[in-house]
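Thought: the user wants the 3D structure for the chain below. I'll pass the sequence to the structure tool as-is, report back what it returns, then summarize two notable features.
Action: structure_tool
Action Input:
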Amino acid sequence: MQPAMSLLFLCVCLAAVAQVVHCDPRENENRMGFDDADLSSNSIAQSKRGYSFDLEHSISLDGKVGVFSSRGEVAIDFERAKPAVTFPTKVVLNDAQRASFQKLLSQNGFYTVRARSEPGNPNSAFVVASVPSCFLVKNRFREDLAFHVNDVGNLISIEFRTPAINAIDCASVSKRNVKDASFTSIGSVALAVDGPEVLRVATAAKVAVPQGVKPVKDENAPADEENQSLFRKYWYIIVPVMILLLSGGGSDPAPVQGAAAGGAARR
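Observation:
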C-alpha cells in the first residue's frame, strides 16, 4: 500500500512540474509558418531576368467595355537595380478605332486595358484597369501605367497614373474632335513589400470591480490564481511530503514482539 501511495504522489508532482515548464502557446505563435531563412531569401521576381506579355485594350462601339484586342507587348526587366518597363510597340489607333474612341469620349466612357495575371499562362485570370477617356485626350494620349507584381513576379494589378481632370474640364474635352490618337506610354513596376508589423498591446492593469457587478474576463489576461497549477500553489507542501515518502520516513514502526510477549506473561 505504501509504495503505491508513493508512486501516486510522485506522478502528481511530475505532472505539476510539467505543467509549470510548459510555456505559453502565445510565445510560439510567431514561430509558425516560414523559417527566417525563407523570409529573408530573395524573391523569385527579383531573380528573374524578366518577361514580356500581351496587353489588350477595349474600345467598344457602343461606349461600353466590349471585345478586347491586342494593343502590343509590354516588357518587364528585373535585372536592373530598379525594375524597368518598356513598350516595344507604339500604340496608334487606326481610323475605325479612332471613331470608336470618339464615340467613347462623347459618352464619357472608360478606356480599358487588361493582361493575364500569370504571363505565359493563357488560363490565368485577367488583371483589368480603366481610365476615363477624357483624361487621355486632355493629356494628349500620354499614359503612365504601373504594374504591381507579387513576390513570384505575377501581376496583381495594373494602375493608370494619368493625371486626372475635374468634371467640367472632362465635359469640355468630350466635345473635341480626335484627329490623332498616338499613345506615348511610360511604365513602372511596383514590387511586393512586407506590411507593417502589428505590435502586441500591453494588457492594462486590473481595476477593482464595484460590488454586485460581475467582472468581464479578458481573453488575453493572465490566468487567475485558482487556475494556476497545483504545484505552483502547494509546492511547499508537496515537496516535503514527496521527500518524506521517498526517504521512507513516513512508514509506521514495526511492533516489538518481545515486549508484547512480556506484557502477556505479566498478566
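Final Answer: Structure generated. The longest strand covers residues 50-58. Helices lie at 2-21, 36-40, 44-47, 95-106, 133-138, 167-173, 230-247, 257-266.
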